[in-house]
Amino acid sequence: MAPMRIAVTGASGLIGSALTASLADDGHEVVALVRRAPHGPGEARWDPEKGTVEADALAGCEAVVHLAGAPVAERRWTERRKKVLWDSRVKGTATIAKAMAALDPKPRVLVAGSAIGFYGETGDRAVDEDSPAGKGFLADLVQAWEAAADPAREAGIRTVHARTGLVVSPRGGAWGALFPFFRAGLGGRLGSGRQFWSFIALEDEIAALRFALDHDELSGPVNLTAPEPRTNKEVTEAMGRVLHRPTVLPVPGFALRAVLGEFAGDVTGSQRVRPKRLLDAGFAFAHPDIDGAIKAALPPPNRV
Ligand SMILES: NC(=O)c1ccc[n+]([C@@H]2O[C@H](COP(=O)([O-])OP(=O)(O)OC[C@H]3O[C@@H](n4cnc5c(N)ncnc54)[C@H](OP(=O)(O)O)[C@@H]3O)[C@@H](O)[C@H]2O)c1
C-alpha cells in the first residue's frame, strides 16, 4: 500500500491498537477517532451517540477502518447491555458512513468491523459469505450493524464488512476471558467439546484488515477466520500443549455463564465458518493452525 491517511475508530481496542501500530510502522498517517477530548494531531473527536464527527477529521482520508463497539464478551447481557451493544454498533456505523458519504472527495474504502455472529449457530455445517443469516441476538445485531453502512455504500464507497471470528489473544474478546482458566491449569473442554470454533490469530486479523483495505475486488462481507475451524476439544488440547498445562477438567457451564453471561452461548455453540472470499482473493494466513495461533498470542519467551 502506498502511504495514505487512514482514520480508525476503536483504535484503543484489541484489534484497533494492533492495526494502528501496524499501519504507522509502514508509514501511513493514522487518525484515531476518539470519544474523549483528542490528545494531539493524531486524534480527532467523534460522538457515536450524537452522530457527530469533528469537522475535517476525515478530510483527506483515503480509508476508514471502523472498529468501535461496546465489548461483547465483557459483561452479562442484560436488556440494558444489549441496547448498549446494539446502539454502539448501529449508531456508530451510521455516523461514520454518513460522514464519509458527505465528503468531497470521498474516501475510497470503508472497512467496517463485523462478526461471524451473523451466521448464528451452524453446528457441523460449514458456512461462508454466501450463507444466510442465522438466528439470535448477535445475528440480528450483525445484520443491523452491516446495514447501517448503507449510506457509504450508496455513495459509491467500497465497503467491506470484516466478519471476524474468535481472535486468539489473552488481552481481549471471548478468548481473553478463557485464558486465565487455562493459565491456572483449570482449562478444559466446554460442554461436549464437539462445537466448532472459528478462530483467527491477531496477526492474521490485522493482515486481513490491511488486505481488505488494499484489494479493490473485495467488498461486502468477508470472513476473517482461519481456513480450518477446530472443535473446542481440539482447541482445548492445543491450549494445554502450548501453555504446558493440564486440560482434563471440563469448564463447567455455570462458571462460563458467570464470566460470560449469555455470551457463553457463543463459545458453547458451534460456528464452522470458512474464509472463502479471503482465500479466493489470495490471502495467505501466517497462522492457519491453532497451535501456531496460540503461540503467536503469547509474549516471545513463551513461544516455542
Ligand atoms: N476480539 C474479537 O474476538 C472479535 C470477534 C468478532 C468481532 N469483533 C469486533 O471487532 C471490533 C473490534 O474488536 P476489539 O476486540 O478490538 O474490541 P475492543 O477491544 O472491545 O475495542 C473496541 C473499541 O470500541 C470503542 N468502544 C468501547 N465502548 C464503546 C461504546 N459504547 N461506543 C462506541 N465505541 C466504544 C473503544 O475505543 P475508544 O475508547 O478508543 O473509542 C474500544 O477500544 C468490535 O466491533 C468487535 O465486536 C471482535
Automatic annotation (TrEMBL):
Residues 251-296 form the DUF1731 domain. Residues 6-217 form the NAD-dependent epimerase/dehydratase domain. InterPro entries: DUF1731, Epimerase_deHydtase, NAD(P)-bd_dom_sf, SDR39U1. Gene3D superfamilies: NAD(P)-binding Rossmann-like Domain. Pfam families: DUF1731, Epimerase. Belongs to the NAD(P)-dependent epimerase/dehydratase family. SDR39U1 subfamily. This is TIGR01777 family protein. It comes from Actinacidiphila yanglinensis.
